[in-house]
Amino acid sequence: MTIRSAATVVLSCLMTIFLFAGCSDMQRAEDVEDLKPNNSDVIELNIKIIEPDSGVEAFDVCAEDFINSFNSYYAKDNGSDYLEEIYKWKMFATAPMLDNTKETMMYVFSQEPEARSMPQIKIYADSPKSSIYQVSMCYDDHSYSPETYAIYEELCYYTLKTVFPDKSKKEINELNKRLLLELDRSYTPDQTATNKIPEVKYSENGIGVYPYNVAGDTIELRFAPLDQE
Questions:
Q1: pLDDT tens for residues 58-107?
Q2: 8 A C-beta contact, residue 106 and residue 126
Q3: How distant, in Å, are the alpha carbons of 110, 112, 120, 149 from that of 140?
Q4: Which of 110, 165, 196, 212 could hold 44 in an S-S bridge, CB 3.0 to 4.6 Å?
Q5: Three-state DSSP string of the chain
């Protein structure tokens, strides 16, 4: 065998080794990619207004639907859920806050129930699996702190995203700022106004958003069927 032939054989062997090694590396990279969790999936709700057996207009989604959708958006950005399952929320018998006088259940969640300054989320429904009458994002501004109010702003953002999933991040941010400003502007020192139906400041697809800010009470962004004005 000539020197040239020997060199050709050696070069051919090296190229073969290189190609197989390259394929092996690419395969491993693909395997790793396949094992990566897919955090891009979100649960979109297409909320419609219905009139269930109660005779009162409501959303055609239940508390569990809302929680799963909210958490899907929150976890996509933050890596974990925010809301616990509805069966762990506090529960009270009450009437929704707009013109619905039918007694129902109010489910209340806060990550720190003993801390007055932590935001609360309230869901009004007859049961965890029945139609929602109203969702309220609540904050006790008498115990205001920049840190907890920032959490409140964030939770309002994810609620808007859950209720209006077709909007872009920019649109939701702009709407959130606008509604929080309306919340400040809607302040009334008249404590007898606690039973007054707040004015709708945004609506879409039959869903109204009602800022509520009465002296002595918590501030709220309320989401309810528009016909409940």
A1: 999 999 999 999 999 999 999 999 999 999 999 999 866 566 677 899 99
A2: no
A3: 12, 13, 9, 9
A4: 165
A5: CCHHHHHHHHHHHHHHHHHHHHHHHHHHHHHHHHHCCCCCCCCCCCCCEECCCCCCCEECCEHHHHHHHHHHHHHHHHCCCCCCCHHHCEEEEECCCCCCCCCEEEEEECCCCCCCCCCEEEEEECCCCCEEEEEEEEECHHHCCHHHHHHHHHHHHHHHHHHCCCCCHHHHHHHHHHHHHHHHHCCECCHHHHHCCCCCCEEECCEEEEEECECCCCEEEEEEEHHHC
Total Cβ atoms within 10 A of residue 150: 11
